[in-house]
């Protein structure tokens, strides 16, 4: 599988994805006819290869206040690697989860929302049929977004975590079916404006203009390997340590097409920041902290050294499959995928040696919310 590597502004659907057919249908969100009310609730739903997740939130200053949330492992992409199609069982599990989401949206009377699907639906040849089944069974209309928008919204979600000292930023979003990397040059932006410049990327990976100091997107890439698809590539390797090493090597090979790959290692120290957003990164952080129960407030924004991350990965390897399955810090939903995620993380830290990785318990859903709220003008301006 070759990485999707269009230039900024060029994103496209993966081969095999189909646009939904049939007559034009009403949009999922109700269009505004008057000035937006800051008290309105917004929703964002992210249907990925492995999970279905939703947030309901309200704008609060220049941040957002989460009112309700939902997350469930639906394994929509099970069998996709071999068949190219979404299975009936996977679609049924997902529809069940989406029915719960629909009830939450009705309970909170949410009228402003974006409900998106990503890599599994981009790749599945029967994605259009699935979209129609979802609308028929739940009344929800899913939107398959392009890799560029997925990468862009992941970056936007991380704006509050960007240090004012950061001049070169790498945001990594490890998903179930793909991994997005975005390299951003902030050296031309005044320090106090750097987080705000990241937020403005919700409008697109656009060139600089005269109105605002702009974050320059040096390069971005969507690699069609995430925790689920990478695991599936090496299911036939029985030895745990060998499988991990092969996954990490295989993923690093895909990084060669990312333009900052070769020339960034020397400069990746002073003024350089990596932000990792994914269940893998937050699980590694929770293990490092020794949390018996996951606490987002302790994990989101945590900075970990490469040595600390490596120690956690070595601990996972020492546990073996049985130990990881029984470890409450990893969780039943995550245990089958944690080593493929750790292999991706290790490959990234090998490619760009750095003293710190910033942990983001945020991603596409938060990016969708920030983008909607920014477009409606209900977020207050000012530094984060």
From TrEMBL:
Q: Positions of the region Disordered? A: 1-39
Using the record's annotation, list all stretches that form the Ppx/GppA phosphatase N-terminal domain.
56-373
Pfam families attached here?
Ppx-GppA (PF02541)
SUPFAM superfamilies, per this entry?
Actin-like ATPase domain
Which branch of life, at top level? Bacteria
Keyword Metal-binding in annotation: no
Which CDD domains does the annotation name? Answer: ASKHA_NBD_AaPPX-GppA_MtPPX2-like
Q: What class of enzyme is it?
A: hydrolase
The Gene Ontology terms for molecular function here are: exopolyphosphatase activity
What keywords were assigned to this record? Hydrolase
- Family matches, as Gene3D superfamilies: 3.30.420.40, Exopolyphosphatase. Domain 2
InterPro entries named in the record: ATPase_NBD, GppA/Ppx_hydrolase, Ppx_GppA_N
Might you give the EC number(s) for this enzyme?
A: 3.6.1.11
What is this protein's record name?
Exopolyphosphatase
Which organism is this entry from?
Thalassobacter stenotrophicus
């Amino acid at each position: 599988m070759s990485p999707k590597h269009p230039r900024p502004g060029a994103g496209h659907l993966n081969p095999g994805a189909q646009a939904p057919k049939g007559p034009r249908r009403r949009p999922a969100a109700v269009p505004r006819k008057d000035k937006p009310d800051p008290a309105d609730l917004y929703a964002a739903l992210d249907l990925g290869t492995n999970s279905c997740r939703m947030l309901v939130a309200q704008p609060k200053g220049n941040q957002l206040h989460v009112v309700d949330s939902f997350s469930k492992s639906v394994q929509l992409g099970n069998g996709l690697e071999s068949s190219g199609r979404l299975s009936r069982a996977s679609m049924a599990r997902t529809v069940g989860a989406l029915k719960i989401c629909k009830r939450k949206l009705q309970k909170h009377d949410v009228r402003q929302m974006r409900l998106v699907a990503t890599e599994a639906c981009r790749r599945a040849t029967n994605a259009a049929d699935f979209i129609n089944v979802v609308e028929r069974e739940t009344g929800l209309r899913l939107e398959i977004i392009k890799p560029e928008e997925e990468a862009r919204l992941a970056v936007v979600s991380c704006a509050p975590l960007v240090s004012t000292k950061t001049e070169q930023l790498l945001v990594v979003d490890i998903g179930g079916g793909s991994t997005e990397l975005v390299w951003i040059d902030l050296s031309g932006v005044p320090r106090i404006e750097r987080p705000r410049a990241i937020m403005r990327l919700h409008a697109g990976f656009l060139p600089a203009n005269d109105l605002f100091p702009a974050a320059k997107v040096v390069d971005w890439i969507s690699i069609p390997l995430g925790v689920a698809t990478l695991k599936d590539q090496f299911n036939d390797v029985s030895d745990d340590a060998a499988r991990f090493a092969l996954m990490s090597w295989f993923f690093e090979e895909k990084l060669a097409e990312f333009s900052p790959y070769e020339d960034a290692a020397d400069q990746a120290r002073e003024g350089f920041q990596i932000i990792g957003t994914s269940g893998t990164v937050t699980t590694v952080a929770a293990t490092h902290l020794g949390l018996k129960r996951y606490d987002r407030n302790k994990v989101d924004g945590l900075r970990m050294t490469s040595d600390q991350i490596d120690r956690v990965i070595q601990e996972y390897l020492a546990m073996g499959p049985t130990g990881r399955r029984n470890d409450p810090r990893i969780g039943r939903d995550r245990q089958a995928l944690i080593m493929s995620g750790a292999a991706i993380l290790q490959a990234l830290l090998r490619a760009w040696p750095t003293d710190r990785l910033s942990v983001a318990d945020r991603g596409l859903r938060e990016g969708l919310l920030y983008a909607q709220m920014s477009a409606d003008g209900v977020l207050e301006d000012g530094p984060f």
